[in-house]
Write a structure and sequence with these properties.
The protein has a nine-stranded mixed beta sheet, sandwiched between helices. Strands 19-18-17-20-21-22 form a six-stranded parallel beta sheet, sandwiched between helices. It has a three-stranded antiparallel beta sheet with strand order 12-14-13. The protein is an alpha/beta fold and 820 residues long. It is globular. Helix 22 (569-585) crosses helix 29. 48% of the residues lie in helices and 15% in strands. Helix 26 (689-696) links the parallel strand 21 (680-683) and strand 22. It folds into three domains: 1-73 and 89-123, no CATH class; 74-88 and 124-475, Rossmann fold (3-Layer(aba) Sandwich), CATH 3.40.50; 553-805, Glycogen Phosphorylase B (Rossmann fold, 3-Layer(aba) Sandwich), CATH 3.40.50.2000.
Length: 820
Amino acid sequence: MIKTPHKVDLPLPKRGVSDPDALAAEIMDKLTYSIGKDAKVATPHDWLTATILVVRDRIIDTWMESTRNTYMNNGKRVYYLSLEFLIGRLLRDAMSNLGLIDDMRQALQSLSVEFDVIAGLEPDAALGNGGLGRLAACFMESMATVNIPAYGYGIRYVHGLFRQQMADGWQVELPESWLAHGNPWEFERRESSYEVGFGGTVETVDGPDGEPRYVWKQGERVIATAYDTPAVGWRGERVNTLRLWSAQPIDPILLDAFNAGDHIGALRESNKAESLTRVLYPADATPAGQELRLRQEFFFCSASLQDIVRRHLQQGNTLAQLPDKVAIQLNDTHPAVSVAELMRLLVDVHGVAFDEAWEITRHTFSYTNHTLLPEALESWPVPLFERLLPRHMQLVYAINAKILLDARKNRGFNDHEIRQISLIDESGDRRLRMGNLAFIGSHSINGVSALHTELMKETVFADLHKLYPTRINNKTNGITPRRWLMQCNPDLTDLITEAIGPDFLDDATKLKGLDAFADDASFQQKFAAVKFANKQKLASLVASRMGIKIDPQAMFDIQIKRIHEYKRQLLNIIETVALFDQIRSHPERDWVPRVKLFAGKAAPSYHNAKLIIKLANDVARVINTDPSVRGLLKVVFIPNYNVSLAEVMVPAADLSEQISTAGMEASGTGNMKFALNGALTIGTLDGANVEMRDHVGEENIVIFGMTADEVGRVRAEGHDPRAAIDASRELQQALSSIASGVFSPDDRDRYADLMQGIYQHDWFMVAADFDAYAKAQRDVDDIWNDKSAWYSKTIRNTARMGWFSSDRTIRQYNADIWRA
């Protein structure tokens, strides 16, 4: 509860001073003169905004100094282009990095304001979907922490990804209005506005040298306006910039049409422009959805590149120097159109010869691949791309001709290899392969885990790797320990500091010192107490949001990630049904009490993913109301998964579910967050799980199931899921009960097709891995029953996860790729 202060008698504000009295005075100053409120009538949101403005003031001087120093030194900058930045709430993060939390808490307390109450009011910035966007946010923080001059470029989505609610267990998508009351962290930069065009025609004119020049006569144009948010590093020693673009029409209203009575038509251009930055990942199942998605990607890429080139030239550099001063990292294929756009800017706008422009472009870009799934390696219908970006299509054809001629004449590529490396896929309707464009247009292509990188060479980019055998390299993902330990788990941070000192706060590899305490009974007891307190916090959240009581004494078994068949939430649910059957059939056994917690969003057009959410909720409804289970098993699906929810769930986890089909998860970062916070991982040898096993020790992680090689071989030979199902009585019973409507009495056929998919093809190896997964879960039970062994393993997980800091990842990027 926030109380109105009766008397405020404080010294004048002193910016930069961090004692509680000075902070309290600054908060009152902001409340009065920036928000225009008297303390007696100020709302909790007013106090939040005033507090943010005070913290922001302490960032700005360093922000300007960081930018000024880079400008004065004419140093190389990194530009990180990403369609997502899942930054979450910023107040606590910024205060932690600035060392302000304790003093600010006292300052607010002196004003009768509870810090935790107002901090909880800050909306999550709805700028991302999952791991890709959260990685980008971690990277922004780490680039500032390790003193790399950097800009992040993305879109300022008004609604971003949808807000997820449940209606009778079904996912319902609602707008996530995080900007409804403004964003006090950002600064509008009207001077950094650029025109971005679409459609139209390409005309040929004579250049000053007599050579033909190409002029893109755009059919429509919008304005991209920059909004800057400071990205502060650890200890506040460097502040970088996250620049997000908002779309505005050139003519907000067609006044003649409005006055003629066509009020809707008069706003047509305004609505069309604003739709570009309205929603993250508009459904692309329709032609209109595909066009909007491509428009979004080109919009932010074009604005970003215009901004980058303008800044580069403004500092007195030549275009030939671009690779020496600029490193542009493409975060997945979404910004791949940047390759064609930079070529257009160089060739058409600045008059650089094509071959020279290509060398500049290729040495400026680098590309991070995040997926081996063909559908996630974006491709666009050639007619759509050509209609929307006609000049870029010409450039793509010219680039393709250059590459294919070289591959055929100088490298001896055959017809099959030529088809595989071509930018145009002609196997069906002609499509432009954006993954190939990003690869060919970059000097470095990196995977995000050791396994993923090797699979890239063998699968999706095998022929491009043959053409350019030195370009692919690995940069295993990481997470920022500031957000994912110090901020979300302060009690564990204090306990570690008490045990090994504070050096790990600046160097996460120093966590290794905790190894010495893994078998110490007294430390285990303290570690267990911290975990229990975090579980109580999560139990309280579940009770308040969902009215479900869960026991913090039970094992908290958590799977939180985007809902997708390859991530195998379905395997988890089916094993839960099998466990439910076993508990009821064998009540005499000593079952470990478990709470199975799920959270995640399904893409609106992904039918099976949404059906899996419904199944989880149906299974929860049956299990949670069955008295014969005796509280030994509960299932909870928590709606609207976001960063703030993750910050509660991750520290509370006992068991971390990382059970994707081997060879399909590029890396994962949730696995790292859980292990860092003292959870035991159950998982396949997929993504970064392989390296986690190597670092934490195979005795401190529970691995099951087929390897990526085995999955590939079984698929190639022809997988027979019926044989696996027939060999497993528990799996048979679970599939039968789900398919027959035991969990869906209102619609007995609801899950028939979903289960039939496992019987018929089982592409994601749910049946193939089921018995191994069920056995691994019983192995987890055995470890849980030996509490000393359990805490020994989980403490060692925390101790040995320092290598997975995003600081290490960023230093590797810089040493091997950017050289900023």
